[in-house]
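U., I forgot to send this yesterday:
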Amino acid sequence: MDPRHLISTFGTVGVVAIIFAETGLLVGFFLPGDSLLFTAGLLSAPSVHKPVHLNLAVVLPGVFVAAVVGAQVGYLIGRRAGPAVFRRPESRLFKREYVDRARAFFDDHGARTIVLARFIPVVRTFANVLAGAARMEPRTFTRFNLAGGFVWSIGITLAGYFLGRTVPNIDRYLLPVVAVIVVLSVVPVALEARRRTRAA
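Result:
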């Protein structure tokens, strides 16, 4: 799941496919969305050593479309098969706690969850399905999906790109930088869990 290895192996097509799977397919919750977007932006910067050629003009629309279409697919899965999906028995990949975590976040934040969940691993995968299962109005979902998909995919990718342009030899420290991204993406989940524990 090393983002640089994934990009070196599969290129831009792989980045787009992984972003789509993580946001649209339930089995994609474990994929490295945040760190992959950041690394793709970083490796698009002209001053960074590139293991594979990435064109920012191709990466940006690609990840945006993948993020939006993936979420729409997740929404449709929820509308058509939500109850059946959520009744599935516990398995190594499908855990009830993932659904419960996304449902709690959805209950707290309503339609804004579609935007906020983009920045929270696991929740961003299941929130779209829950929105569909809850019969959120399609236009409302699409509106928040477009906004969240843009801010998340374009914002994180550009953050990596501009860091690559401004910090010399940043590619030498790619693993620590990615580790920081991963830790930061887990912080909201930890804070939410702490809040609920204290409330209980």
